Give the backbone structure.
Amino acid sequence: MAKLSDPITILKGIGAARAKQFANLNIRTLQDLICHFPRGYEDRTRLITIGALEPDKPACFRAVVMNTPRTSHIRKGLDLTRVQAADHTGRINLTFFNSRFAAEQLRYGSEYIFYGTLTGDYAGYGMTNPVFESPDAPGVSTRRVLPIYPLTAGLSNGAVVRAVTQALAICEMPPEILPEPVRLRYDILPAEQAYRVIHQPETMAQAEQARKRMIFEEFFVFSAGLSLMRADRAGRRTPAYRELDLEPFYSALPFALTGAQRRAVDEILADFQRGTPMNRLVQGDVGSGKTMVAAAAAYCAGKNGRQTALMAPTEILAEQHYASLKKLLEPLGISLELLTGSMTPRQKRLIRERIASGEARVVVGTHALLTDTTQFHNLGLVIADEQHRFGVAQRSRLSEKGEDPHLLVMSATPIPRTLALLMYGDLDVSILDEMPPGREPVDTFLVGESYRPRINAFIRKQVQLGHQCFVVCPAVEENQELGIKAASAWAETLEQKVFPDLRVSLLHGQMKGAEKEETMGAFARGEADVLVATTVIEVGVDVPNATLMVIEDADRFGLSQLHQLRGRVGRGKAKSYCILTTHNRNPETLQRLKALCKTNDGFRIAEEDLKLRGPGDFFGSRQSGLPAFRVADLSYDLTTLKQAQAASTEWIDARGGEDSPEAEALRRRIGELFQRSKGTMN
């Protein structure tokens, strides 16, 4: 019996070249191969007659070859083999391109099982390159449920099927990690059966049962891992901060905090006094005041003699945080420093000296905070802003610069509470669901292309009033097939034809980092009237003078993303507006976009997005902190996630410390999952 750790080269037909192709799919061992699950299936179990074939519908049929295959040489590199097959309901013309196999194997008068797709018109239906097998041979490509695997260049689905078939015949299966009571309660297949059936199901129902097992298993491991992370954190100790009177801090604020902000601050202070490292998410809508909550936390840490590191995703956002926090905290005796990648070596050296000595109580910066040359004196609090731009690995790397510092992550992406608790299972969650008084809502309108002259006139009016405008496009370059506005071409049109007298600039993700920072900085300083951009502006810019956001082809964005973009305006005292344009007349699409026009409440919008589109927007690729699942999909398998989470929590609470083989295998799998996820984190 082969071992899971054996290399795939022990399999017949896998030499060095083939192994390299498999390695492109991260398949190097038999375990990697067995855990390379199908992305879907083709049901080839049902045989129909030739007369029942339908155009563009793949099907299996049994037929007799009616003539000797004829091969014609069309040109260099192209040979055509033609043959006719028939059953009692009709005849069909079969064509094979460059197929010596078909020419040699198909014999006049013999019967075969074919699988393919009928194409053509009334001038003549036919089938191109169908697969075929003798009815006396075991069904490999026909008369079975065929797994369809993720592939890479040079590697066919058949090659993967053959390799997996060999592996299943000689290899032990991965160990069982799901406790028997859990399997019985949720009707989950045992591990050995599931690993075989997912690759070789006899029916589509069997395939679905096997997939259910794998999805449940991944979520069970994921949830158990989060539970163990919580338990580990609870077991670690850090000096409790002394209780502080925050009245000096509150009195220094130019406005009173909302009830939600006060509640979040109280939760953070309670965490500080527990004697265990805090791990808290502050989640709030655009403009809900997360920065002031972070400032209160930094003030408390500073007054307890500890340093705070605040990491922002862009230099502009870091500079904005530094300016606002310096104005607030330095009069209260909390010294600040700013550290970014664009500073000169001498500036960085002097600032790092003040950080290492402890002279700097609060350090605001970008990824420069992560470098080995940045050392802290007594780091007590790590704050990560716009957390979805930072992976767990980056937050951990910053936290390692102190001895179990408290961690506060902030997100301006409103997520329904139930999803937040699932998504951030290793974090305690504080939600800012109130807006500071005096912040005017942004008026939002949905219009078609016929409103273009009025849109342009409104842009000009805002500029004449001394304000600035954003214009967001869904793409950088033109794509005629999609028919959507591209930022580069639209910026050129606006600059040369529509607003030749205005200052129009362009910003997109393909620009170099320094160029993006300079363009955004110039717009923030008022050196451009109109900024045409992609979603690169979604996070990390505060331009109070910007009063208009025009989003082209708005149907190309999710509601939550549109709301994030809209949040770039309405940050000053002037009335602000958002205009959504679309060519799409689909009623469901229009209903979704109109939901954005009715409210500025990000949590209501998130609930609407969840209802209309599912949780994919919230669990998308931008969320860097989640492990990479092999088969589970957080966009569709939310019910299974909830079941697995409940089962894992119950099991660990009851028996998490036991030394059963299942518990040991579960701990190993947790380590593998979270280790594998590091490669996918930004």
